[in-house]
Amino acid sequence: HFSTFQSLEQIAELKARIFKGLNHNGIAIINGETMFADYLKDKALESTQNVLTYHKEHTGDSDFSPEFIQYYKGYIELGLDEIQGIEKYKLNTISEGMVSNALAAFLTLKELHLPINPEYVESFKPFSKILAMKPIKTLSHNVTLIDDTHNASLPAMINAIHAFNSQTQFFTGNKIIALGKINDLGHKSAEVHAELVDVLTHSNADYILCLDSDLRPVVNKIRNKHITWYPNKDLLMNDLMYLCNEDSLALLKSSSGGTEFPEIAKALPQRLTHFELADNFGDIFEEMSHLGQSYMIIDNKTNDIISSHNVEQSQTIEGMGPLLYYLKAMDDKLDNETITMQEWVTNNDKHYTGKQIDLFTLLESMTSSPHPSETYELVDYLFKNFANRKRYTETLISKFDLSNSIAINLTGRFRVKERQCYSVLDLFKLYKAYKYDLFKFNNMFILGLNYKSGFIRGAEQTIIFTSYTDLEELKAKIKF
Q1: Where does residue 362 rank: exposed (0-12), middle (13-18), buried (19+ CB within 10 A)?
Q2: What would you report as the CA-atom Rg of the chain, rounded to the nearest whole angstrom?
């Protein structure tokens, strides 16, 4: 609950008040590996001389630590040095944090001169959403989920990732980490979430999927990992289901409030039981493009849907930014004028600093898979700053009830780190409002590079489509 505190030091000061309840014969047991452990020891010594610490690793100043900790599939075994030799104890958990809790309990029993009962230790079970490993049988394969969406702090998030790392060796399929934000961090949110960058970078995950705006800066800072930020839970769950292949392992971790992520953890097991994955499923984004191929054929006069294909699965991996900016220009009813192209990072021999181009030519370029520099130029002309562009995009999304994933980055280009998506239904909603403006410059409006989406208008019919590579195939479906 960092939002109500100024610093971690202040939290340590408040927690240390518990020691004031001790008398001089009392015993304080402290995790020697926690932050501010030395400070906590000093505060405890003000009330009692009986201050003991425990550690997972052997250290010189530790009063209690195990001889070994061994991770197995679904459980942990640790050994304690006792009078009769090394005694092994099995914990039905994969959590390092739970190992620390067990050591605290063992040291408490030791100081109370009570025996540790191995059967009691083995029969212990954490609450259902504390790193619970759930085997799932789909229609085609087996998946294992680790659900840890009961709550989250930075240590708990790191603990969950470490637990996941300890289990990946036992699975042959994809290793996936899916995260929602740590809630209630207030002004410290960016600082605390940034601590996850190194942990995720060195994790054993093949894929990392992140929800919530608090995690977007984390995604952008991580290198050499297949990591993606998602604008909504439905899109994340869609991709996650396809990534959960045969003998895969997926960690689900978030706070229980302030994020929609727990809804994923709640719905995913049931969704997976009715899910079938093709044996030859390949790259996630290539496959989403193939699965997302769809079209609707519309009567030009009535706007009636004459026929359609795969509308329910319709999706893209790119955004519709260029289309939105084009529509803004149409709404503003701009006069033509000459524009001098500025310096953009994507400039090349054809699109270069100082090039003269008139506005209508620039708008025409928007209708045919525009070069990023052209899109940058139009956006700068229309909006002047990021806030204005964001406000316009959000207004358009709200007005036409579009998905909030339609325009995550400015140019609409595909990026692994930013999941964008729109459907043929999103395009249809805009078509009904702008059917004449769309074809002001030509009879096609095409978005995307490798996979094309957009509109092709014939004499009697218009086809609206997503994620196709062959435009001639689409033209053949309508009457010109």
Answers
A1: buried
A2: 29
